[in-house]
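Take a record.
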Amino acid sequence: MIKGSIVAIVTPMFPDGAVDWDSLSALVEWHISEGTDGIVAVGTTGESATLDVDEHIEVIRRVVKLSKKRVPVIAGTGANSTSEAIELTRAGKEAGADAALLVTPYYNKPPQEGLYRHYKAVAEAVDIPIILYNVPGRTGCDMQPATVARLAKLKNIIGLKEAKGEIERINELLALGLPRDFAIYSGDDATACESILLGCHGDISVTANVAPRKMHELCAAALAGDRARAERIDAELQPLHKHLFVEPNPIPVKWALNEMNKIPAGLRLPLVAMDSANQDVVRAALRTGGAI
């Protein structure tokens, strides 16, 4: 089971939008040296919505190769078309990913039965560990705990990233009596500390992009049940948890990484550079969190 701080890594880009492969390589090495416990390639933070299929698969392939099995790599392979999700998940497996992370289908708002059949179809088509991903604030679709319980019975569905951002939902999931080898990950940095202390297995994190060592230490402390240490680290990171979402993700986190001289200042339309009015608050959060 993958545990701890799992970074939803950005896809570095030049100002013209071209992928910066050298910066991606440097980021992977930095994360491994800083203690990051796993890497999600081409999640929401990795701009999955604007990479074309070839780029999407190439980012996964390169992150797998760069990691050299030192940390697990989870491929973001979700789509709002079941057939496309199957194709991307198959490509993620062929690239050597350890697992696949599939966001709930977005925009078309499937009912709970549609969600069940969507994930079941992917799980039956591709023999790779699958992590469900619920983020209703992005997708307009909220996978209910009862649906998670149904899906957890399928042999290669092994976990859930829950990003609703509500401790009440985490408690509902933990009370389901899910299989012992089914992992629940926080997908909301602001509530991740408490979620892990309650019983979650880790955090698939945006904040880890800029504070990988501290996010690793926070998750390790929480997994060990050391509430005092986990909460102390979390308090230092709360400004980052909050202000890295002052504009839609990944705009602020890519600005922050550019400020840290880790990546160029590249995004793809329809995302645009962060408003200058927000720069001071994100810079202050970076200082508070020890990132600069």
